[in-house]
Amino acid sequence: MSVTGSDWTSGAGSAEPQLALPARREPAGAGWRWIAQGWSFFTRAPLMWILSILIWFVIAIVLSLVPIVGSVVFQVLNAAIAAGFVVACRALERGGDFELEHLFAGFRTRFASLLIVGLLVLAGYVVIFIVFAGIAGFSILGAAMSGDAQAIASQAMASALTILLGALVAVALTVPLMAAFWFAPALVVMHGLGPVEAMKQSLVGCLRNWIPFLVWSIVMLVFAILAAIPFGLGYLVWLPLAITSSYAAYRGIYTEPAPGEAAP
What we know:
The protein is mostly helical and 264 residues long. The protein has one domain. Helix content is 71%, strand content 2%. The chain has helices at 30-44, 46-64, 69-76, 78-93, 111-136, 138-146, 149-158, 160-182, 184-191, 195-208, 210-228, 235-254; strands spanning 18-19, 255-256. Strands 1-2 form a two-stranded antiparallel sheet. The protein starts with 17 loop residues before the first strand and ends in an 8-residue tail after the last strand.
């Protein structure tokens, strides 16, 4: 079920890592190991990683110029974008180069499945928004859409507790949705899993490894604070590190080494 690496990498033609299910449990220290491995991927092609982030940042800005529709389109394409970064990581892991074409690999390989993943995540966000609105009350949303600052402040004061409750519920629902998305692009593009199965396995993998993910999150939060200090320029490194360390997590949780490779 694995994707042939020669389809979209420039590294040596070694066999691809094999999918190992169910997702394995990693120790707490794996959270730091993922970051260390991710840093290694970044340092192999730092300029390309920074350039790739800038490219997608510009594309996101251009799409955002189209009200509502542009943001929706970018959200739906997130899985295909993430798949391109997975392909880039695999190319570097195999000793190849990070090439610009890797960024768009998700639009050429299993794009339909990746598009469905994006649509499912978007649908999840819509449901969460509806739940939040139902708890917080549609009146605050109506005030917000009116643009009347005084009406918004007045309604917010009157509905503070319900808004807080709605926000907490929304966060509680968003976490598993993000967990279901986290590894789905890699499982689709690398192993050919269907959209629903990929999201299911991603959720299972995250739940089984919540302790190393907690370690990963704390360390990455500290790095995010530090990245904001030099006018936010540190995020040009932090964002690639978040991507590459997530790839390292995918390799550790879901795969067996390819023949001739060391364990991830």
